[in-house]
Design goal:
alpha+beta; Alpha-Beta Plaits; 4 domains; five-stranded antiparallel beta sheet; about 55% helix; about 20% strand; disordered N terminus
Length: about 375
Amino acid sequence: MPTVLVQSVFAQVSDEARIDACGIEGTYTCQKVFEWTDNALAATAADWLLDRPVRIALIALLAIVASKVLQRAVSRFVNTVAATPNEIRLQALRDRAPARLLVEKESKRAEARAETIGLVLRSIVVAVVWTFAAMMILGQLDIDLGPLIAGAGIGGIALGFGAQSIVKDFLSGLFMLIEDQYGVGDVIDLGYATGTVEKVSLRSTTIRDVTGTVWHVPNGEISRVGNYSQLWSRALLDIEVAYDVDLRFAQGVIQRVADDFWEDPEWGGDELMERPEVWGIQELGASGIAIRLAVKTEPSMQWATERELRLRVKEALDEAGIEIPFPQQTVWLRNQGEHLVAEGPDQSEIATHEAAGGGGTDAAE
């Protein structure tokens, strides 16, 4: 009995020493080294020098593999999202004359969008994976993560309240890039600013208006976007002629100008996407009748096309003797005693002193 009691006491003492050296749930390496050497310092040193580095290295290796796999998945997802809408829209335009150039432009645009979106999403993935890996590594080093997580949570809440606008800008910019609402070089209308896009980031959009003013607009404040130059544009001209003009003849003159414009190699070959069309009478106005001419152009070329067509139409109408109306008013002057009285179309009278030697009745238009 005394021998059994002594063995039990020694076993209890040995277990307590093992627990002190390796903990209640000690690692396999620490327990084995303690059994072999019966030395707490050796067991602890073996645990720190052999077991924990191996587990830390394994965690780091798994983090590297996970980040690589997730980055590749993000790249595939981004390429699909960025390319699919353009491919669908381009398929309907492949039978047009400048389709090849349009496909090249849209392909470059899709690549730029995919690169921007992919860079952001890959950075987020890497940050998340390595954050979890770092927490697991700290756990292997017996660092209590409770206070750290609590402090990070409180800091995250405070940062969230203070950076709501930044988060809003970030998310708006991300969805804007995914949906391809606009890109660098597009002419857009943001409501309070209209101009050419010079820079697009997840935080803001930079545009330059026609006067040269540069506008920096946070993406979160953009509630609507009008894009004047995505895929194609259209030039619309409402050309007014007088009421006494033969409208069919006037439409024929405008159509001939449009056909010559289409056949002009400087314009029709590269800048126009379809043959110009005279759509007909657009408005019966107070001074004249408006005839609408529509021209489908390359993106952002509608304004140059409108300016050139206005010049050519004006020259053709002058040559054909067709008057472009303008507001007119007739004033009649009659002699009434010592004063000249002017009567306009509204029958109102304006009394003026008669000039020396004046008299009689004159009419002026």
